[in-house]
# Entry
Amino acid sequence: MKKKTRIAPCLLTLVLMVGACASPQAVQRAEEAERLGNWDAAVAYYQSALEDDPDNAKYEMKLKRARLNASQAHQNAGKRLWNGEDLDHALLEYELAVQLDSGNQVAASELRHVQEEIAILGGEGPQLTALERLKARAEAQEPPLAKLRPRVDETFSLDFRDTQILDIYRALASIAGLNVVFDAQVADQSVSLDLESVTFLESLDIMNRAYGNFHKALSEDTFIVIPDNQQKRRAYADQVMRTFFLSNGDAANVAQILRTLLQARAVAENTEMNTITIRDTPPVVELAERIVAVADKSRGEVLLNIEILEVSKRLMREYGMSLTDYGVTQSLRQGSGTEGGQSGISVNRLRYITAADWFVTIPSIRYKLFKESGDFKLVADPQLRLTEGEAASLVIGQEVPIVTTTFSTGQLVGNQVVPIRSTTYRDVGIVIGASVRVHHNAEVTIELEIEVSQVIGESSIEDLPIFATRTVSSVVRLRDGETNILAGLLRDDERKDVEGVMGLADIPILGKLFSSTETQIEQTDVIMSITPHILRTADITGEDLASLYVGTELVIGGSAGSPGAAGSPGPGAGPSEGLPPEPPEDAVTLALLPVTNNVQLGQEFTVDLVVEGASDLFSAGVQLSFDAAVIEYVDADRGGFLASDGAEATFTAAPSGAGRVATGMSRLGPVGGIAGSGPLARFTFRTVGEGRTNITISAGTLRGLDGRPMPVQFEVAEVIVTQ
# Structure
């Protein structure tokens, strides 16, 4: 970093130098500095002038404008220095910008970012709050679970020929200096294994994955090998509980993400404290921690500078000759007396009417030479600070009451409908509504609605107000600091009325002497602009963008070296990585019956695939796995459940490799799904070797009529072959 230089004292020195200047001279120099763009000098001169004349409002307004422009100039300079990685000078420029205008939120935000970068480069690291330090300490603590401590770290090679599985496990434990015990149902058989350059944990993973087992640490030097099935995992799985305190995310939304992605049922949110508590196996809780860290990122914040300028001009001219009334009135004098209580003229007196009794009213001539003009100017420069995803509004103006009258036949008084008057209020002035979305390329999408309104008069109906309104609705995408003109609305209204004596007013040229002209011109120009400044963006790290291993569809959790299906933990892990979550409460069960099969060598036996608690079941696909050295697949027959209501159903079954058989079935025709429990298929096997093996459902999908998969849990069948 470059050596720091002091800029703030320079400004202070400039203020002291001009302190002795008289006010008019200081203002003159300040205006000259403004023309040259030297806003620091302008601030100093205006400050000196205001000290000499503290009550001068004109000087105060000019000083405020100069401080705002000087703050913006230092902010722009700080931005250039920051982009050039001159952090020390950028820091000083931003400090000056904030000192000159404490309301400059953009400069304050960028100042914090520069301070954080300087702290990181200086080895201090980002400044953490007390709660953030507590969270960091808690994350560094590991759950009190047993961890294996193998005595060997280097790689080795293995070569076993026709060796029992349990003996291989014992040999691996001996190499690592550990003890091993076995669950009573671990199947043993003779296998061959050839591995090159593997560590102890890698070889243990491979053994577990290959022969359908998983292991769990009982202490630092002892582990147990267990058959990999749902019942055993539920019996051996340790669980931990963790509470996440969210700073930015919504607890309900984040909890729903965890339930959806991790299939976790034991998730509870506290909306008042904005916390999430999860109870599950350590691998699932660890995945939840990563997901919460991403979902709890701070949302972007944007400062919108909105400028609104409306200039209205009104001009009215009246000139020419006009009459007070374009007509002649003739009236008859009737006298002031009455005869017999009647007014008017009696028929007997009609013969005495003469020209002297008639009166004619002649209109007066009026010469018009009238001109009226008026100007109106509205300038608004509001600022809105918005959080991404949240709507904000700003109202600058007043509320105007509007009286409305309604008539209801339900309100009768003496068979007369009584009018009901109510008053509502409308915002008049400047009404701004906006929402923003911050993009990762320093661009902002803005949804903006601006309304500029005013009362221009009253209607003849109950003196209701008449409003003039300018409304702009727009969706724009702008770069940080980019200014865009949202509207340039020019309205020019001209009205011309001519009145005069019929016939005479139509004579060319001379007609103007017998007529008057009234001209009204109204011009309105509205300009609106918007400039976004990004104050905050989501702090996305490289870890957030990296892929995260989550195990398999059936078993969530684990690491890339030991996926959940293998059930083997990484170095120092307590329980086996990838312990599956408990199935949902509404999960359908796929069972293999009978659960235990004692069969003699060479005999055939059958196992039924049964569904329990199905709802709207339409199709199913299942794969069974078993030890091909103990039993072999012979045949499969369709069960009667899918066709139990008389509908037609398809069924297929075939071997899918050594020790595996796959089957699929579906209802046919325009029928719905079926609910209940019953057999889906019957499999026939033949024993080919002595020993034990489990027939497991290695994959299974049940779908409803809409094609969506159902939550499902599997049960296994055990086969014991004897002579």
Notes: Residues 144 and 557 are 19 Å apart (CA to CA). The mean pLDDT is 79. The longest helix spans residues 57-83. The first strand starts at residue 156 and ends at 164.
